[in-house]
Amino acid sequence: MAGSGKAHLRPRDEVLLRVEDLVVEFPAGRGRTVRAVSGVSFDLARGETLGIVGESGCGKSSAARALVQLPPPRSGSVRLDGRELTTLRGEALRRTRRQLQMIFQDPISSLNPRRRVREIVGEGPRVWNLPGDRVDEVLEAVGLDPATAAVRRPHEFSGGQCQRISIARALILDPEVVICDEPVSALDVSVQAQILGLLEDLKARYRLTLVFIAHDLAVVKNVSDRIMVMYLGKVCELAPSADLISRPAHPYTRALIASIPDGGLDLPPSDTLISGEPPSPVDPPSGCRFRTRCPRARERCAAEEPQIRQVGEDHWLACHFPALPDPEPPVEDSNKE
């Protein structure tokens, strides 16, 4: 299965969320189409955090919204605990969305400015007629004082506090998966660290499974069990976080790591620098979509799309000419005559 585009997926009974051949496209006028996500596959084990990273426009957020069918993908499969979501409609789909909650990039605009915090956080349980009032519990869990926070409106809070409210709104429905769509990119660095620490604490307390999306690899590497690198709607590389950071194989991944201050990895400039802007998703390059900016590109890259293959333990990438370390020489057997 080394050449299969889905070779990196684990057996179905080992995962909570499984995405196969996801395609998301949007009309761009004049008969053109934005190819936002093109055949992406990944999975998520229960209790795992999968980081998805890439430049703006790489398809991260489009893939995330397709998980909750907002809008539904053009094609592909999204299975939550074995249940196919792309075929659900109406009430069945609405009920399933309770298990897939999102935290958005702009915490302030994602909250209704006319409502008080108690109404915002408690709206989900009211809609679902859930027993009990857990608003105070989840507000305390995200670090807010219910006695004062619950009666105020979003404009009375800072950006970091609004993001805590958004997290509480997601938690109160006891979701299986929380999709964090760049949840700290609009926050100051010091506040980012607080929110990231909060998400780690809540993950353990509520046994959450997370999809964490960001354009900043420095942020993603600290919260993710595995990291998936995307470029122009395609998966470039997928590996455990520590392995991806210490042994990046795809030229695009290496460039992202080289941009991290004090990244701790000494990479040659000729192998990490990329130039120019990403191509348009309306008219992506043939073959490898990264080839127009890749320092390793050759003729094969234009003629043939690279398929994802295994290069290490649970380490996968799609590249014809990756930067792989030389194999270690065999260990001599001292007992051999």
Question: What features would you describe in this structure?
Answer:
This protein is α/β, with parallel strands linked by helices. The protein has a domain at 45-69 and 82-99 and 175-273: P-loop containing nucleotide triphosphate hydrolases (Rossmann fold). The chain contains eleven helices and twelve strands. It has helices spanning 60-67, 90-97, 117-128, 135-141, 146-149, 159-171, 189-206, 217-220, 241-246, 251-258, 299-303; strands at residues 17-29, 32-44, 49-53, 75-80, 83-84, 100-103, 177-181, 209-214, 226-231, 234-240, 309-312, 315-317. An eight-stranded mixed β-sheet has the order 6-7-8-3-9-10-12-11, sandwiched between helices. A hairpin with a 2-residue loop joins strand 1 and strand 2. The protein is globular. Pfam families: ABC_tran (PF00005), oligo_HPY (PF08352). InterPro entries: AAA+_ATPase (IPR003593), ABC_transp_ATP-bind (IPR050319), ABC_transporter-like_ATP-bd (IPR003439), ABC_transporter-like_CS (IPR017871), Oligopep_ABC_C (IPR013563), P-loop_NTPase (IPR027417). Residues 17-257 form the ABC transporter domain. It comes from Nonomuraea aridisoli. Belongs to the ABC transporter superfamily.
